[in-house]
Amino acid sequence: MKDRLLITVSLLALFLCSTALFPLSLTAHTLGDESLPNVGVEEKLGTQVPLDLSFTDQDGKAVRLRDYFTGGPVLFSLNYYSCPTLCPVVFHNLAAEINSIKGLSPERDYRLITLSIDTEETFARAKVKAMETWRMIPGFSDPGKRWPFLLGSEREIVTLTNAVGFRYSRLGKNNFAHPSILLVLTPEGKVARYLYGIEQRPSDLKLALMEAAGGKIGGSRFLNQVLLYCFHYDPVGKKYAVTAINLMKITGGVVLLMLGILLALLWRREGKGGQGAPGKG
Questions:
Q1: 13 and 66 co-located in one domain
Q2: Residue 139 burial (CB < 10 Å; 0-12/13-18/19+)?
Q3: What is the C-alpha to C-alpha distance for residues 264 and 238, in angstroms, rounded to an integer?
Q4: Do both 143 and 259 map to the same domain?
Q5: CA–CA separation, 15 vs 10, rounded Å?
Q6: Which of 20, 151, 152, 222 is deepest in the core (most CB within 10 A)?
Q7: Residue 191 — left, alpha, or beta (φ > 0 → left; ψ -120 to 50 → alpha)?
Q8: Residues 35-55: pLDDT tens digits?
Q9: Mean pLDDT of the chain
Q10: Which domain does 66 fall in, by range?
């Protein structure tokens, strides 16, 4: 019995050490290059997005940003619909990533909004781009309300992009240089996170959405809080990474609990054995 206990403790200690070392492989940093000085992002975390701005959706209906903030977080992208290269890839990747997020649904837990930075966009072009993207998400029953493709005047577009620190430059007709980012907004419309690149890890999207919602979306709020405790956003690597110290705390607590249960079972068994021993006399 003692040998079995020693083996169990050794295995648990080895698991704890390997878990503590594992996060070191998740914190590699990659930096992007800025090719144009007037194009980039000035992060303004916590900034309130002006929700009273008026836009027009892909169907030509006048809307306000406030119409889409009804209790859940929002993924907000800034693109333009005539883009022949970068933006179609972004839409395709984002649709695929949404399909890959486990436990969260865009019809229940969050919304998406795309706004064109091109003031010369047409409703027809916005509608085509919207329909192309919606078709990539099976079972998307009300896409016009859950992921609108908006158009706006220069005043509204500039007001919004300035508010969130998004800098872009027109290079010619239907041609813009702009950063590829995804804004994660709280249910109240405040900037919670900037996600960079034309492709996102589904796990990063899920963590960012849960973080923006304070863990109040999805099936289990308890598991959400555990995930948010174990992961943090790395502002240099531009992704979520395991927080080693917090993970060690949780793992250590689990190890102690398991050891306590094991010792209690052993003591109980030894106690029963002592009571059953024959007496002398």
A1: no
A2: exposed
A3: 46
A4: no
A5: 9
A6: 151
A7: beta
A8: 567 899 999 999 999 999 999
A9: 78
A10: 40-215
C-alpha closest to that of 110 among 193, 33, 42: 193
pLDDT band at 120 (very low <50, low <70, confident <90, very high): very high
What pLDDT is recorded for position 25? 32
Residue 143: both structure tokens together: 């896409």
Co-location of 90 and 146 in the same domain: yes
Residue 171 pLDDT: 87
The pTM assigned to this predicted structure is 0.70
Give 219's DSSP letter: S
How many helices, marked H, and strands, marked E, lie in the chain? 8, 13
Cβ atoms of 115 and 161 within 8 Å: the answer is no
- Quick one: pLDDT at residue 215? 73
Question: Which of 176, 168, 175, 157 is closest to 38 using CA atoms?
Answer: 168
What CA–CA distance (Å, rounded) separates 4 from 2? 5
Does one domain contain both 57 and 189?
Answer: yes
From its phi and psi, is residue 189 left (phi > 0), alpha (psi between -120 and 50) or beta?
left
